[in-house]
Write a structure and sequence with these properties.
Elements lengths: L9 E2 L4 E6 L4 E7 L2 E2 L19 E4 L12 E5 L14 E3 L17 E4 L5 E5 L3 E11 L5 E7 L2 E7 H7 L2 E2 L7 E9 L8 E6 L5 E12 L3 H29 L1
């Protein structure tokens, strides 16, 4: 687990902004070639332009451990993950398939690869939601699937066809397959999400790195009721004051 708060970022691409709206939900996303966490380090893949901003948390997988903290939880549908490269199993690796840099530079750090044997599930801890999720995607291929949920309600599903259609960075080490940084964000009350599922439905893998989140707290029901009660008392007091003033002036 790594929190990345380093001062220098270089944004290297015009952003392609795409919105998808359903009858009840909307989820916007943007694509760009990506930003470097430090201007002189180009072998770690790319990062969100928010990587150093207050309120954002980034996990880069570089210690080979399952990331997470008191705000974000990672788990795997089969319960375990692999660290053996080229095993064809969901896990954390460092190999040629790591998502590239903004100019297709080779990424020499660890990354997350999801295969059809096991989904990766990312959840907001406690009574919280995500308003932003960004990740470096690499070597996009058929079967790459990303789903956003609020509880059990599916907010949006994005497939390889959508992601690949937006991406522009082709890396020679990936046989020309596309790479880049995708950012997903809620656009209203109906599309807050608290769970992300990364899946691979065909052969090959879904490679990603440098996950960035913005987590928002949702008041507990008791807190909300308390606030309503206080508001009600305030309104009653104001009403009584007005009635008393009217009597005194009569």
């Amino acid at each position: 687990m790594f929190f990345n708060k380093i001062a220098s970022i270089i944004a290297l691409s015009t952003i392609a902004s795409i919105g998808y709206a359903g009858s009840a939900h909307a989820l916007g996303f943007t694509y760009e070639a990506g930003s470097y966490r430090q201007s002189t380090v180009t072998n770690e893949g790319v990062f969100s332009s928010n990587v150093n901003s207050p309120g954002y948390t980034t996990f880069d997988f570089n210690n080979s451990q399952i990331p997470g903290n008191d705000l974000v939880k990672y788990s795997f549908s089969k319960g375990t993950y692999s660290t053996t490269a080229y095993s064809g199993q969901t896990g954390i690796y460092s190999d040629v398939w790591a998502p590239s840099g903004a100019n297709a530079e080779v990424n020499q750090t660890n990354y997350l690869a999801v295969f059809s044997d096991s989904d990766t599930i990312i959840e907001a801890q406690g009574n919280n939601t995500f308003s932003y999720f960004g990740f470096d995607a690499g070597a996009l291929s058929g079967g790459n699937t990303l789903k956003f949920f609020n509880g059990t309600t599916l907010i949006r599903e994005l497939t390889y066809e959508i992601l690949n259609g937006a991406a522009t960075v082709g890396a020679s080490q990936h046989g020309g397959q596309k790479n880049g940084f995708f950012e997903f964000f809620s656009e209203g009350a109906n599309d807050k999400f608290n769970k992300i599922v990364i899946s691979q439905t065909e052969g090959g893998g879904f490679e990603s790195d440098n996950h960035t989140f913005r987590v928002e707290s949702v008041p507990e029901p008791s807190v909300t009721l308390g606030m309503l009660a206080v508001g009600g008392l305030f309104l009653r007091k104001r009403k009584n004051q007005k009635l008393q003033a009217a009597k005194e002036s009569a």
